[in-house]
Amino acid sequence: MLEELRSAAWLREVGVVDVVLITALRDVEHVRTAMAMGALHYLIKPFPLRQLRDQLERYAAARKRMAALSTVPQNDVDALFGMMRPMASRSMAKGLTLATAERVAEVLRSTDADVSAVEVSETTGIARVTARRYLEHLCAEGRAELTLRYGQAARPEHRYRWVP
């Protein structure tokens, strides 16, 4: 494991390389070393494939967001660093729970089309207002994006899409 970390450090010297470690090593010294050498994440085997997928999606969203910026205010820096943390370690707004946030996120991930809060509500069984609060939370984290669909009604329809 230490040799792999040294290789990752060498790669960083050559250029910008981001590392997510996947290992069976569980001792705290290896975790500390990985953190000190700049690993973005440390996944301990065995783990559910969803956990790796979520981490890679957060990474891709953070890289995409950084590519769109030339300078950043502190709130953008906080959001970028927050995107790389697992949802469980993030602070949730009052009244929101991790389990429901993951359920709403899964609905967004499972479709290529954008969806409304009503559609998420029908799929998950939660109230429309609750679905919208979770969707807005995911947008604030940079994990989802909001688009407006203008139609016949006076108000535009809010549509949400997962940010890959």
UniProtKB/TrEMBL annotation:
One of its GO terms (molecular function) is phosphorelay response regulator activity. Gene3D superfamilies: 3.40.50.2300. PROSITE patterns: RESPONSE_REGULATORY. It comes from Nesterenkonia sandarakina. Residues 1-60 form the Response regulatory domain. InterPro entries: 2C-system_Tx_regulators, CheY-like_superfamily, Sig_transdc_resp-reg_receiver. This is Response regulatory domain-containing protein. Transmembrane segments: none annotated.
